[in-house]
Amino acid sequence: MLPGQVPAVHALIWVEALDRLNHTAWDGVARMAIDPAVWQPKLTLVMDDGQEVAGEQVYAAAPLALWNQVQPLDVTFTLPAQHSSAGGGAAAVGGGEREQQCFKVWEASFPDNKAPFCLPPFSAALCHRLAPSATYTPDRPALWSVLIPFRSMGTPWAAHVGRTAARLQHHLAYLREMGAAGVLLYSDALTRRALEAEASVQRFLREGRLLFVTWDMMERRTYQWDHHMVYGHALLGLAGCGTNLWLQLTDLDEMMFSVYGNTWLRVHSCLVESAMSRTAAAAAAPEAPAPAVFRLYRVDVLSSRVDPEAEAALWYTPTAAAAAAEPAGAAAELAGRPAPHPLDYYDRIAKTPLWTGKMVACPAARVVDSWAHDARAVLGSRHEGNASCAFILHVKNYWQVCVAVRPRAYYNASVFEPFRFLAFRTTAARAARRGQDSEQDSRG
């Protein structure tokens, strides 16, 4: 334990009504089935010596409530004074003679129903695996993309697995160009086993760029049902890591982008410098907390080269197959450029951003109230990301046709304008390669 810390168990609570699991598409993205303003769970933790500890919300409520009502509830159980932390999810009991890692918890509405649970193992090894201090520092942090489980949504199983592997391939290729470390993919055991049989996924695992996170929650069609729980789980689970680790909380159809071709480390420094400059200009106190959450603008992109109905196939076709399908002239034109990527087909960008963004966040800042599009940091500050540093490209027709506009209409569209992504990808890829070469040289 660090000086000033007290032994405690932090928990993330998600409340639902069983009779409303599929009530509307917006349950789970804009509101809970249970209104938290009307009812909140009153939880009690049971120790192995019979002592009971009441749960409490030790963090002040957000000064401005977000428009949605789905923030998972953060609950803290402060353990009795004689219990000292064993570090990373274990409470030492009886003067450190043994460690208590398992408890029971019950809620006041159902006092006779006590649920057992055990704390996860200490995260120090995982923190080192994600962001080794010899390579990453608070000023040059590692970035890992957090992806919610891939749901089959009625797609035949073999097709779902193959398409998921291809989408991962494209996602990891782009992350590498941006200088990100890899992907934390939440997955159930069945999907994980199927993906591990795919050759491309096996390569990602060997390279250490893909890590599976076991997730056994049910699969259902409700829109964005997983986001809040997965993001909250990742942010809470990695809260014990250092500030040299950041998470990108986006979907497969969203990619961080810099108009200057900057990769992650430069994007990070740009976001931080911009936020601190705005804070200083606002005459804030000099001890203002460091930036820890950036909500980046999202901007729709479309392709005038591919029919909307064919866009989804760009993303679920493996790279090798996509390259083989390229005309000979186009393949020659790509010589000296980055490897072919579906984003190369996109040449139209919206003139105005969407009203909801996506996040990059530092879990060490104790990020709470997370949902699909926003969060706040108790031990840090939250900012709107400066779009000149980076923003999020949102592929509108990634999964299915959402904008059915024919190519000729793009040139006269009032909401989209021409844009060349391949040129920016080339700049970013070169910068990423230079960064990787320098990193290898520094390691000897």
Considering the chains and any ligands shown, give keywords for the structure:
single chain; 444 residues; alpha+beta; 7-stranded mixed β-sheet; 5-stranded mixed β-sheet; 11 helices; 23 strands; 23% strand
pLDDT averaged residue by residue: 80
Q: Structural class, from helix and strand content? A: alpha+beta
Supply the number of structural domains: 2
Q: For the largest beta sheet, what order do the strands appear in spatially?
A: 12-11-10-13-18-15-21
Q: How many beta-strand segments?
A: 23
Q: CA-to-CA gap between the ends?
A: 35 Å
Number of continuous helical runs: 11
Low-confidence stretches: 84-98, 322-336, 406-412, 439-444
Determine Rg (CA atoms, Å): 23 Å
Sheet with most strands: 7 strands, mixed
Percent range for helical residues?
25-40%
Overall, the morphology is: globular
Strand content: 15-25%
Protein name: Glycosyltransferase family 92 protein
Task: Provide a descriptive summary of the structure in words.
With 444 residues, the chain is α+β, with helices and mostly antiparallel strands. The chain has 2 domains: 8-122, no CATH class; 125-443, no CATH class. Helix content is 28%, strand content 23%. The protein contains 11 helices and 23 strands. The strands form 6 sheets. Strands 12-11-10-13-18-15-21 form a 7-stranded mixed β-sheet, sandwiched between helices. Strands 14-22-16-17-23 form a 5-stranded mixed β-sheet. It has a 4-stranded antiparallel β-sheet with strand order 3-2-8-9, with no helix packed on it. The radius of gyration is 23 Å and the shape is globular. The model is unreliable at 84-98, 322-336, 406-412 and 439-444 (pLDDT under 50). This is Glycosyltransferase family 92 protein.
